[in-house]
Amino acid sequence: MSDARDDHDTHEEAWPFEEVLKAGREGAREQLRRFLDYVAENDPALAATIAAETARFDTVSHTVIEPTMREVANEVTQRGWHVSVVRDDDLDRMAVFATPGIRFYCSGTSSRTGTGAPVWPSCFVGFYGSVRNSAVGTLVELPQVAEGAVPSSEPLLQYPEVTSETVRTVLIAFLEDLGRELSVIERA
Question: SS3 helix, strand, coil % of the chain, rounded to 5?
Answer without folding.
Answer: 50, 20, 30
